[in-house]
Amino acid sequence: MIDLTPALNAIPAWTPDVFDALCGGGNWTDAKLLDLLSRLSIKSTPRNRKHDLDNCPFCHESEGNPAVWVKDGTPIYKCHRANKCGQRVFADLEALANRPKRRIINVLDLPKQYPTARAEVVKGLIRRGDVCNIIGGSKARKTFLVMLLALCVASGRKFLAWETVQGRVLLMDNELRGDDLWRRLEAMAKAMGLCWEDVGQHIDVMPLRGTLSDLNTIDSELSYLPPETYALEILDALYKALPAGTDENSNSDMTRAYVLLDRTAERDNCAVAVVHHTSKGSQREKSVSDMGSGAGAQSRSADAHIVLREHEDKNTLVLQAIVRSQKPVDPICIVFEHPLWQLAPDKDPANTAAANKKPAPTLDEFLATLPADPSPKKDVLALSKIKLGCSKDTIMALVQEATSRGQVVIAQPSNKTRPHTICRKKGQ
């Protein structure tokens, strides 16, 4: 028979303090709970003995119906959102209230706090702790470019015009399926002359296609990794990972998204690169910092903003970049020779396709295509589109402008079977 006396004697006495510590405390009141919410600046609405929170303090969403309440003196917190918030308890809420305050450091003490510069991942372009944008048009082969970046960092090879520092890479892809991911990476590695088995050991993938994995979920998943597990984490593409309710055109919404990316990069001490698309329409008048669909915060928040413009030559792009804390980067030309992007030093970055495109038609040029007498509107505008060599959207914008200026006459006949007509106003 085993003597359990020593083990039983080692158990601490069950005092109220010990019980409260283990059970989260049994002396909470509704007033004390409201005081905690007030200190955390959390807005709430009382409903059925609970306090419904306007937003979860962890995922910042309301769709999980976050709430707090007191039951038998014990405080309870719950958010039903389908991510790690579902595992949060009231102790996590208390930890928010007891978190350390922001530090104020004298500038002369900064060298003691930050004695070394950030380690580089791509020399002169991307460092650990940086958030990097890679912006390009639809079907511009952006994924091939970031896969090339992943292979170069994983192998320590030169990435286009820049040297890299060898390190482990995580590729999070929400557009390709798993079989496409490994087949494309393997083909690219072999085209680069790399041993696929060797370089593949330094690349991990997180296939996200078909899942609702937003930035909050991804950040939570990565939080369990030891710092510096990866030198580079790539998210392809950003638009599919924006939290629900995020307005791509809202500066405040996009700022919150990039704060999440910053937090991931700082905590993991790695570079985070996100792939994003350009806005619709011509990019020819836009500066590098203005390229990228949505609010301007997406370019201002990044440490490296890399954009891809079309070149006048087929399968060629102009790569331009703005970096926050490093020397200015000169634009380069790259050419796609399946399955790799290659540096094209013989091509001129100034010869962008956008720079050589025909300028948009003027209002006078549009009016010159219109008949003097009323004619079927649909046929007239179709002919104007052909004559001016522009899009339907451009034609409709010109019609709207001409109408607002009273330079065209558009008639809608009383007989619905007859077409609308359009013509120049007399004297135009």
Reported for the largest beta sheet, the result is: 9 strands, mixed
Query: What is the first-to-last residue Cα distance?
Result: 111 Å
Can you name the CATH architecture of the largest domain? 3-Layer(aba) Sandwich
Total beta strand runs: 18
Cα-atom Rg, whole angstroms? 30 Å
Structural class category: alpha/beta
The coarse overall form would be globular
Tally of helical runs? 14
What is the total number of structural domains? 3
* Average pLDDT metric: 87
CATH level-four homologous superfamily name of the largest domain: P-loop containing nucleotide triphosphate hydrolases
What is the fold-level CATH name, i.e. the topology of the largest domain?
A: Rossmann fold
Helix content: 25-40%
Classified by CATH, the class of the largest domain is Alpha Beta
Task: Give the strand order of the largest sheet, numbering strands 1, 2, ... along the chain.
Answer: 9-8-10-11-7-12-13-14-15
Q: Are there runs of 5+ residues with pLDDT below 50, and where?
A: 7-25
* Residues in β-strands, percent: 15-25%
